[in-house]
Specification:
Bound molecules: zinc ion
Shape: globular
Radius of gyration: 22 Å
Number of helices: 12
Largest sheet: 7 strands, mixed
């Protein structure tokens, strides 16, 4: 499997003398299997030089599958400049997560309206198929691809591609679910020491992978000012990949303010982190033009053959119960959930919530912790003790941002834990992620 980077910058293209080594184009990675199946991971401005190269060198007509993590600008701006799309006879399949109430076709056509661009989407010469994806396992171009939602303020998918006996993951853009990766009472570096169930699930998705390409936009020093913007630090990406026994890690989605010297220091510090965790993982900051080939490990092939695939669950309207004694919070949550097409029920306390759950059987519960008795933890305990609601997804949504209350919630059976304040797209993403994957009620068992 060949991996080639065409754009490694996050947010906005940053050409200029200070970015010549790592590059200024936004997200775009080319992956080609031994049998010639070609994937294009994101279509940031790096897709322009990739398209030129494919037209000049590759086999014609061109067939490729474009996997978009999401449709933020820095992941689609190169799409209208990707020359193979203009050529009749070429065949492209474009995949992206379903979300936001508009189809992928509508979103991509939006950035090509005459106000923004001279050629409309419908005028492109190539045959283009559009696929709206959710979490699941798919066969694309004869290759097995698994998807999992990332934590980002938009519907965003991570991709796991398995071909030639090699497993590659593309995890961009993604923010940790919790500020501290490890429980303070556990030994860092192990999957079971990860504090938040969402972070553990993210680690399990990349477990034993040959190659992981991960968002690493910020430094740990920058992160507090950028919380909830949907990105990782190099320190988080390195630690979680090392714990997941990843063999090769590429850090990408470099911040526009980080020049070449700064990124070299990030690379150095990331390698020190991997070494301090006694991980043999090789870590690099991805750069434009970076190219590596990965060969299969015979034992890995046996493991992949045994993998079970499930069919993707279609996105549907959920019936969600919001439990909070604070009316303003209920209004905010209701607005966000209605906007995403869900149905909302409300309860202002634990007793009322338990009654509603027994009577109306919601699909999901958003549960506050600090309420008049029974408080959130007690309500959660009762939900889990009842046979009918043992696996009902419950997101704890609370002003408590401390480790003790997060740990107590997960131990009590919370599916996810989100601290206030939250933004509507963030809540939407967490609901989607929480409901997309079948899992047991108790996050610690996943
Ligand atoms: Zn981005
Ligand atoms: Zn983004």
């Amino acid at each position: 499997m060949l991996v080639r980077f065409w754009g490694t910058r996050g947010s906005i293209a940053t050409p200029g003398p200070s970015t010549t080594r790592y590059g200024g184009n936004t997200s775009c990675v080319e992956v080609v299997t031994k049998s010639g199946v070609r994937f294009i991971l994101d279509c940031g401005t790096g897709a322009r030089p990739l398209g030129i190269r494919m037209m000049a060198d590759g086999p014609q007509p061109i067939t490729a599958t474009i996997l978009l993590t999401h449709t933020h600008w820095d992941h689609i701006q190169g799409f209208p400049f990707f020359t193979p799309l203009f050529v009749p006879g070429n065949h492209m399949t474009v995949c992206a997560p379903q979300g936001g109430g508009r189809s992928l076709l509508e979103v991509l056509a939006g950035q090509m309206e005459y106000t923004y661009f001279p050629v409309e989407l419908g005028q492109l010469g190539a045959a283009i198929d559009y696929k709206d994806l959710a979490e699941g396992a798919f066969e694309l171009g004869g290759v097995q691809v698994t998807t999992q939602y990332l934590n980002h303020p938009a519907a965003t998918l991570g991709y796991r591609i398995m071909a030639d006996g090699v497993t590659l993951l593309y995890l961009c853009d993604h923010e940790p679910y919790w500020e501290n990766l490890w429980r303070s009472d556990a030994e860092p570096g192990k999957l079971e020491s990860i504090l938040h169930a969402g972070d553990r699930r993210h680690a399990v998705f990349m477990e034993n992978a040959d190659v992981v390409i991960h968002d690493a936009q910020y430094t740990p020093e920058e992160y507090p000012a950028k919380k909830n913007w949907g990105h990782s630090t190099y320190s988080f990406a390195t630690q979680i990949a090392a714990a997941a026994n990843v063999k090769r890690l590429f850090l990408t989605h470099h911040d526009p303010t980080h020049d070449d010297d700064f990124l070299s220091r990030i690379e150095e510090r990331s390698r020190e982190i991997a070494a301090s965790l006694q991980s043999p993982m090789k870590v690099s900051c991805a750069f434009e033009g970076c190219e590596e080939t990965f060969e299969s490990d015979p034992y890995e092939v046996l493991r992949i053959r045994g993998t079970q695939f499930h069919t993707p669950s279609p996105e549907r309207a959920l019936r969600i119960l919001v439990v909070d004694d604070d009316e303003d919070l209920r209004i905010l949550a209701r607005k966000a959930l209605l906007r995403s097409g869900h149905k909302v029920m409300e309860a202002s306390g634990g007793a009322e919530a338990l009654e509603l759950i027994a009577r109306d059987k919601p699909d999901l519960v958003l549960l506050d912790l600090l309420m008049p008795p029974p408080d959130g933890l007690e309500t959660l305990r009762i939900i889990r003790s009842r046979e009918a609601t043992r696996s009902l997804p419950v997101i704890v949504l609370t002003a408590q941002g401390d480790e003790a209350s997060a740990t107590a919630s997960f131990e009590g059976g919370a599916t996810d834990y989100l601290s206030k304040p939250f933004t509507p797209p963030q809540l939407d993403a967490r609901v989607r992620s929480c409901f997309a994957a079948p899992r047991s009620g108790n996050g610690l068992e996943n």
